[in-house]
Amino acid sequence: MKKIAAIVSIILMISAVLAYSAGKRPRDSMASAHLPGAAIAAMQKIDPERIRAHVRFLASDFLEGRGTGQRGGDLAAEYIATQFALEGLRPAGDSGTYMQKVPMVGVTTAPETTFSLAPSNGAGRDLKLLTDYVGYNETQQASSQVDAKIVFVGYGIEAPEFKWDDYKGTDVKGKVLLMLVNEPPSDDDNFFKGRALTYYGRWTYKYEQAARKGAAGAMLIHKTDMASYPWEVVRNSNSGEKSYLKLEGTPKLQIASWIHLDVAKALAAMASNDLDKMMMDARSRDFRPVELPVSLKAHMVSKIRPFQSNNVIGMVAGSDPKLKDEAVMFTAHYDHLGIRPEMPGDNIYNGANDNATGCGVLMEIAHAYAMSTQKPRRSIFFASVTGEEQGLLGSEYLGKHPPIPAGKIALDLNYDDIPPLGAPEEVEVAGSERTTFYPVVQAMAEEFRLTIRPDARPEAGHFYRSDHFSLSRVGIPAFSINEGVKYKGHDAAWGIQQADEYTAKHYHQPSDEYHPDMDFTGDAAMARFGFALAWEAANAQTMVSWVKGDEFEHGRLPRQLH
Predict the structure, then answer these.
(1) Is the dihedral of CA 74, 76, 79, 81 positive or negative?
(2) Is the whole model's pTM more than 0.90, yes or no?
(3) Quick one: CATH architecture of 50-88+317-561?
(4) Partner of 108 for a Cys bridge, out of 49, 92, 205, 241, CB 3.0 to 4.6 A?
């Protein structure tokens, strides 16, 4: 009880700081012919210092990195729910609460696990966890034994719309599939969308497709330029406990793993092959799977921990008697990588940028909507989701169990990792061009004096790496809002340098921490921009939809029929 009282006291103290900081509110020059005066007044009160206060608390050591299923993650959810309650948002979770229960299972790969490459001839090689490979048992079993031939399947993609099939009908049931991340390189926009990564290039697709094929396991070859992040990110993201949604009958792999590039080269050499040649061969439509004269012998030992995490959902009811049953949604994940007790030195993954910033923005937008003396026609939902770092789990569950039918959600606007670097002159809204809402986005960017910057790194596949993707998969038009790379007082090269430095030194590292010199001007600007976009979508005569021919176009239809 003393601990609970202390937590409540801290949350209330932070809330008092937020209320005090609201006294210094910046003015925004944006004026819209569409937004009523009450909405503009509420939007103009969005305050970077309130966002700072949220980030400072969520990224503090007290919250221990906000790990999924860990004490810090639960505290973050309670904090956000408390803020929703203080703003007067209606609970939109389970049983009249702000919490939507998300059943999960934590899987920790135990030190007893063995992972060995065994060639038909010559000496084998025992691999070291975290140094040579990372791996989990997705079947959520405490123990499993795999002794299977390794089959190289190139990119592991079946994409009939691009006339691409890496499997060619090969029976890979019970085998371990070696594959490349990303997808065949191209500058042709009609072939895997050119430089832009599609979902076929994501590691999640690779695992899902391998499981559908009946494979026992999959090994992804890590290459920094192809993955878009270094091995340290793979290692840190796949050490300790990994969370999964409770199994619901979907096929899963006994081994879902990555291997270091040096291990992949050694594996190819065991098979008397050259890895560079194998990778080049995989770029051809004529590629066929190659069974290597090497087996993977693995004994997967896992600690299994069923637990419950929570999405936090609040809402502001719409003003139109008929349209209030429809909604616009905001999302931002509150989880990060938690604390790693076994690590020496700083072992708390505070996740200040990723994604205390997004949560701060979401709560400040909720504050603005709650304050507005006039409400939009459709309702507004605010969902801070769990388990994003574990594979978009909370948003996946939210998409499958939305607070209202998915077909009635006009739009999802997501915030993830909004750099506190100052006043932005650009905005990134990758994916918005895939919706009928894009002309509104363009017009609003012009009113805000923001240049829409194309995805700076389309090959990284950012559209498929954050929570809006989970909502897209069930047909809800969705995209993320973020700053570009051009900031007031700096050129674009400076912004790119900041982004590259963050990715190389701080992304998914304990050094992603809050610092007093952070400038949340841009976070507030993105909050105002999203506030205005949501108001427009919530007041529009018709629902936002995907443009004709988009891969998500038909996701909504079945849900509208129910």
Answers:
(1) negative
(2) no
(3) 3-Layer(aba) Sandwich (3.40)
(4) 241
